[in-house]
Amino acid sequence: MNDRTLAPWTDLVSLGTRHAMAGLSEMLGEEIAVSSFALKRTPVAELANVVGGAEVDAVGIYLTVTGAANGHLMLIYEPRIAYAFVDLLMGQPAETTQELDEMGRSALGEMGNIIGAFFLNAIADATGLELMPSPPAVMTDMAGALLDVVTAEILLRQDDTYVAETTFTTADREIEGQFMVMPSEELLDVLLKSSKAA
Amino acid sequence: MAKILIADDAAFMRMKSASLVKELGHDVIEAEDGAEAVKVYQAESPDAVLMDITMPNMDGMEALQEILKLDPDAKIAMVTAMGQQAVIMEAIKAGAKDFVVKPFDADRIQSALWKLVG
Amino acid sequence: MTLDVVTNERIMLSLGEWAVSDDPERELVCLGLGSCVAFCAYDPQKHIGGMAHMVLPDSDHGKRSGAEAKFVDLAVPLVVREMEGLGALRSRLVVHLVGGAQMLSGASFSDTMMIGQRNVEAAHEAVEAQRLKITSEDTGGDAGRTVKLAIATGQLDISSPRKKLTAAAA
Domain residue spans in chain A? Predict the structure, then answer.
């Protein structure tokens, strides 16, 4: 797939990401500014480099996409960023959360749910497709180990994947993290076809 | 005062919704997935249900249909981030009385409950 | 100063990569194994080591394409063959399996969550098919692992910094 055919996909992901950030902003009750957005084709084996290496500690929020086609959504953050989200979500002062308890996990899961659903809602409404997110899983481990969850399944069929990288900031807190959208080739085909038809 | 069943797999959401519903003066019972929601509905006959859609075991759409089979007059509002047109239409057609898109504020929950239980 | 560690040159194996070496200055490393399995083999007499970072159990008789060590059924014989090429003797090989964790649990992920276990099972089969014996195994569970094999000594170093609970966000 060359860059030209990728353009509609970039538009869709960009649209989805804007909606996702709007959902997050509503959920947190805070303005969120997207400071960078990039869609890249990356070898699956190098995904860990995107998040700072396979061995760094990370918190991952993972959802699968089902419906018109399949794909993966993963939000991946340094632990201190994930803890900052928990504080925002629970309405706690900054740096209250120092580790993830069940309620913290649940709060992050719900954040993944909102972000994933808003992302898919935008794409679904733009294309007329029905795309459903799974319930979220929240995991803590080395980034490489977390990414195995998606890489194994993607590598079964392809060696590259598309990663949408988004960094964003809130008014008083700098939050950097990856919102990774990894469509299957099948999902990509379906999306490109339906956006062409639209 | 009414008895409201909150069905959501996320403990965080149950906590948030329950505190809003309690502030409005209602009793709250909870279920963690769709299958449990059906069971709890049968056992406790709540006055209304706030039902998430994306849940493990049985999702909210299926639970909606199961509960309506048990009680065709069941008052159920879907509460979900899945605000896709197709999903909203499907839920209303299946018999949901309201559709609240997450994230919601207190007013939206109040108006949903007003619609369901007056 | 821990001289041996500092001077060792690390060969980092990413997903689907493999390496063999007889250079005593070297160390073969797989970082952050989740459901992936590292096949580690060592000839203690010749000081030859090999490692593969394996991602999936089965190439479907080589029909599935991609990096050579991506599939367990291809990676194990490949590493053994290359070690023999360096002069290792199959009957002397000390074999370790590391990884194959189940990173996800919960009803929604029933398909993906089995990959770790299937990788471990496939690795057992592949090792047996090569008429090798497994000397040690640190597999399964729900925590990621990093594994290092020092070529000079054959010493295997496994770390699992976060033995943790994987929970669906419910």
Answer: 3-197
Q: Which residue of A has its CA nearest to C34?
A: A145
Query: Chain B: nearest CA to A43, how far in angstroms?
Result: 31
Question: Strands, DSSP E only, in A68-159?
Answer: 71-77, 131-133, 137-142
Of A31, A37, A34, which Cα lies nearest the Cα of A10? A37
Question: Domain count of chain B?
Answer: 1
Residue C137 in any domain: the answer is: yes
Q: Which of A48, A22, A20 is nearest to A117 (CA)?
A: A20
Task: Give B84→chain C minimum CA distance, Å.
Answer: 21
- Residues A105, A139: Cα–Cα separation, whole Å: 8
| Domain spanning A3-197: CATH 3.40.50.2300 | no
Structure tokens at A169: 């900031």
Chain A residues touching residue B103 (CB < 8 angstroms):
23, 26-27, 114
**Do residues C87 and C46 make contact, with C-beta atoms less than 8 angstroms apart?**
yes
pLDDT in tens, C71-112: 999 999 999 999 999 999 999 999 999 999 998 876 566 665
Q: Please, what is the average pLDDT of chain B?
A: 95
Least confident among A90-99, B64-73, C63-72, C112-121: C63-72
The encoded tokens of residue C166 equal: 């994987």
Q: C167 touching B, CB under 8 A?
A: no
> B2: part of which helix (H) or strand (E)?
none
Partners for B (CB, 8 Å, 3+ pairs)? A, C
Supply the CATH number for residue C101's domain: 3.30.1330.200
Active site residue C36: yes
DSSP string of A148-173? HHHHHHHHTT-SEEEEEEEEEEESS-
Among C36, C30, C24, CA closest to C158: C30
Q: Which domain holds residue C33?
A: 3-159
3-state secondary structure of C63: coil
Contact between A78 and A57 under an 8 Å Cβ cutoff? The reply is yes
Residue span of the structural domain in which B64 resides: 3-117
Q: What is the ipTM of this complex?
A: 0.86
Residues contacting residue C68 through CB under 8 Å, at least 6 positions apart: C16, C18, C74, C75, C78
Averaged pLDDT for residues C9-15 = 94
Answer yes or no: are the C-beta atoms of A41 and A185 closer than 8 Å: no
Cβ pair A106:C169 closer than 8 A = yes
Report how many domains make up chain C.
1
Residues of C in contact with B11 (CB under 8 A): 170
Beta carbons of A170 and A130 less than 8 angstroms apart = no
Rounded Cα distance between A96 and A37, Å, is 30
The CA distance from C23 to C49, in Å, is 9
